[in-house]
């Protein structure tokens, strides 16, 4: 009997670390009664003299509003992350951090009085990055179709629904993923 058939291995270390940090952030949120999320794992308009404002520009992607919010984002991260990590390797970290910074800055400029947290910007970056991934040069038709369907849904939802979901973050995250994917393709 081959013992390696049932061996558990780490297939996507960046993805797994991302998920573990998000789990840790949610655990800290529960332990601190939300204080850690306010300090580190969310972003909102604050003084640029506050050093934690810069930490929050990245940290907001790890914070979540509860277990359901976390699980819905982590399912996408766990599905897409290993595929993208196999293709892009360590450059996936660039996608995650760039998406966090861009979505954080734009959110704070447009909605400074609203707290933003969650990995949905990264999820949408992964979705559009995955649709770009392929062997050929140019713009794949799958990217165009995903972008049309997804952007249409986000604009429609944003215009017709009053909820606590930031469609702006989804759109900016998706554009970040698509832009970085095109940049990586040229390289």
Account of the protein in words:
The structure is a single chain. The protein is an all-alpha fold. The protein has one domain: Up-down Bundle (Rhomboid-like fold). 68% of the residues lie in helices and 0% in strands. The chain contains eight helices and no strands. It has helices at 13-31, 35-39, 51-59, 67-88, 91-110, 120-132, 141-160, 167-186. Helix 1 runs antiparallel to helix 4 (67-88). The radius of gyration is 17 Å and the shape is globular. The mean pLDDT is 88.
**Main beta sheet:** none
User: Which CATH architecture would you pick?
Assistant: Up-down Bundle
The total of helices stands at 8
Strand content: under 5%
Multimerization state: single chain
- The coarse silhouette is globular
Distance between the termini: 45 Å
Q: What structural keywords apply?
A:
Rhomboid-like fold, mainly alpha, 187 residues
In short:
With 187 residues, the protein is mostly helical. It has helices at residues 13-31, 35-39, 51-59, 67-88, 91-110, 120-132, 141-160, 167-186. The chain has a single domain (3-186), classed as Rhomboid-like fold (Up-down Bundle), CATH 1.20.1540.
